[in-house]
Design a protein that fits this description.
about 625 residues, alpha/beta, Rossmann fold, four-stranded antiparallel β-sheet, 20 helices, binds adenosine-5'-triphosphate, binds magnesium ion
């Protein structure tokens, strides 16, 4: 289920890495944006200075009995400067918002690309061991929290911090005493933030986990809807969801309660502070106007108190902002951290250097050529001698004493030795869980084993690049997977450059053409939801056609015909027989009819080959094979 395992804390250095990443995407635009932010921040603190000047002029005029005419031009010029400042501040604010929108969306797009690229390079093991809902949530939840951080929290944090610092400088310049009063209030605010804010962040993270869980539950229910229905589990499912949903509600409620109390409390502390500063300023003005109680650059007066009040408001507002944003940055970094974790996952290793090339015979010697000849060769560069040899691709597969375990300490295959010569049909039979699929997983290198134990045309398969290796294999997996697109697209998946005719030919060969042409739209029929609009057997036929169109020298068919009726199967069988000429074929099947005509049948039991031989040999032997299948045979 969804992000249950979601880490609640970001790793150290995530922030630095995030900034570095954004910077690497936008090396010019990001500094420009930061400059705009800093500019907007600093400018927004300046009006107080001009306000002080204007009030100073007016009070001065009142004291000295100057008329409006004498001071009007100065006042006007200050007012014009003020208006200009506000205009510039507004413009740069608009500018950085626009720039940041571009940077944010661009960054998210690039990160999504990076993640997908990475994901496509991860080994099968990653998908075995990680919850699919959780992997999915990297693209949804985590990206969304990151969006918040990059587009809002970080710029706001930078902006508010600069405002706080420059205001502090101006305030100290205005009056040190009054600044101290403000600072006492601010410490109270920080204390409250720490108390309440910590709780809020904790609950927000729990809320994210609860969202993941709810999403996972919904996903699973949609996926298993038919099972839910056949077992009449609708009511149980509804009440289960109710629990999950309740929990999400509780966490979200707590998180938001905390967050919603923090704002008003901080605001009120700010307001109280405002009043205190106003009273303190007033008293100082009235009682001791003749002394310079500012202790700093300016003489104390109404002209100082009024802008100071303004600044107090702005200052507490900014501190409020900073504490608010730090919270969401912490949360967002948890998402960023998860994204970076995915980007840091170790990719599927491939040290293979033997590749597959088109080849032809020149003077009896096999050499590489640049056109299709229908002959393929392994191009094997030898590191020691610097020579390159070409080996004809034939499909000779040999296992020598192969042991394998998915998890340490739990051996799945034990001492498997087998060989398949070009053109042979090798069948694996055995009970569920015996290790049949595992053998094929090793041939196509979904999982790697120790050196030298599996050889393909005499080459250690670890030396063959995975691309080349899989190109040479036609694989029909046990679970059929079809993709959104037409039937034709799905068949062409086996060989992207195949023409329509080739696809149809392949379908005809494996007996899929019949049902496809009977559908109203034929090969143009759209497949949705992994082929939910097709029968299981039809899906398998398409999967077989997909492997056939690739025209590989080795075929691996894992339970490929398990859902196909016996009549169609004999059609498939005939097609396969044509297809199999000159190919090595590994079949895994529970049905006797599929394996009967194999050159050799391997009977697996708990990861070991316990019997091997042709159908007739094994029947005669009256061993495990005989026992496994005579019942079924007699019924048939
Ligand atoms: N990805 C995996 N991680 C860990 N163990 C696995 C994994 N896949 C399979 N196994 C284990 O390996 C053993 C062999 O599984 P395998 O899929 O090869 O069986 P099988 O013979 O193909 O069975 P079936 O006829 O049901 O398809 C099983 O006991 C299974 O529990
Ligand atoms: Mg299997």
């Amino acid at each position: 289920m969804g992000s249950q395992k979601m880490k609640s804390k970001a790793k150290k250095g995530t922030m630095a890495r995030l900034i570095k990443t954004v910077f690497s995407f936008y090396p010019r635009m990001l500094p420009l944006t930061l400059m705009c932010i800093a500019f907007a921040a600093i400018i927004s603190t300046l009006p107080s200075i001009f306000l002080q000047n204007i009030i100073g002029l007016v009070t001065d005029a009142l004291d000295t009995g100057k008329g409006w005419d004498e001071i009007s031009s100065s006042v006007f010029s200050f007012v014009i400067i003020l208006v200009c400042l506000y205009a510039v501040s507004l413009t740069s604010g608009f500018l950085w918002n626009q720039l940041m929108a571009v940077i944010t969306q661009g960054t998210l797009k690039k990160l999504r690309d990076k993640m997908f690229n990475k994901m496509e390079r991860l080994p099968v093991k990653y998908f075995d061991t990680n919850n699919h809902g959780d992997i999915m949530s990297h693209y949804t939840n985590d990206i969304d929290t990151l969006r918040q951080v990059v587009s809002q929290s970080l710029p706001q944090l930078v902006m508010s911090s600069i405002v706080v610092i420059s205001l502090l400088i101006i305030m100290v310049y205005f009056s040190l005493w009054m600044t101290l009063v403000v600072l006492v209030g601010v410490f109270a605010m920080l204390f409250v933030t720490k108390k309440i804010g910590g709780g809020s962040a904790r609950h927000f993270i729990r809320q994210q986990v609860a969202i993941g869980r709810a999403e996972g539950f919904i996903e699973e229910t949609i996926h298993g809807q038919k099972v839910v229905k056949v077992f009449c589990h609708e009511e149980a499912s509804i009440s289960d969801f109710d629990k999950v949903n309740d929990e999400l509600f509780r966490e979200a409620d707590r998180a938001n309660k905390y967050a919603n109390t923090l704002g008003p409390i901080l605001n009120n502390i700010g307001n109280v502070l405002y009043v205190i500063v106003a009273i303190a300023g007033g008293i100082m003005c009235l009682l001791i106007p003749e002394y310079n109680v500012s202790l700093s650059g300016l003489a104390f007066s109404v002209a100082v108190v009024v802008p100071f009040l303004n600044m107090t408001k702005q200052f507490t507002g900014s501190v409020n902002q900073v504490s608010h944003q730090i919270n969401s940055v912490v949360m967002g970094l948890a998402g960023a951290s998860r994204i970076f974790d995915l980007l840091d996952e170790e990719e599927e290793k491939d040290e293979g250097y033997v590749t597959l090339v088109d080849a032809e015979y020149v003077n009896g010697e096999l050499t590489e050529c640049d056109h299709h000849t229908g002959i393929w060769a392994w191009k094997h560069p030898h590191k020691e001698t610097g020579e390159t040899t070409y080996v004809l691709l034939q499909g000779d597969v040999r296992f020598t004493e192969v042991d394998f375990e998915y998890e340490p300490g739990k051996p799945v295959l034990k001492n498997i030795t087998l060989y398949a010569e070009p053109g042979q049909k090798v069948a694996f039979v055995g009970a569920t869980g015996a290790g049949k699929t595992t053998i094929t997983n090793l041939i196509n290198r979904f999982y790697d084993i120790a050196d030298g134990k599996i050889r393909y045309d005499g080459i250690n398969i670890n030396k063959i690049s995975k691309r080349a290796l899989r190109r040479s294999l036609g694989i029909v997996l046990q679970d059929t997977n079809l993709f959104t697109g037409t039937v034709m697209d799905n068949i062409r998946y086996g060989k992207l450059e195949a023409s329509d005719e080739e696809c149809i030919e392949a379908a005809r060969l494996v007996g899929a053409d019949d049902f496809i042409t009977r559908m109203p739209k034929g090969y143009a029929t759209e497949i949705t939801n992994n082929g939910a609009n097709l029968s299981q057997g039809q899906r398998q036929l398409i999967a077989i056609a997909r492997a056939a169109v690739a025209d590989p020298p080795v075929m691996i068919l894992d339970e490929a015909t398990s859902s196909i009726d016996t009549r169609t199967e004999s059609i498939v069988q005939r097609g396969m027989d044509t297809l199999m000429k000159g190919r090595t074929v590994f079949v895994i099947a529970h049905r006797l009819s599929t394996v009967k005509n194999s050159d050799v049948i391997m009977v697996l039991d708990h990861g070991e080959i316990i019997e091997r031989g042709s159908h007739d040999d094994l029947i005669e032997k009256k061993g495990q094979y005989y026992k496994l299948y005579t019942g079924a045979f007699e019924l048939e």
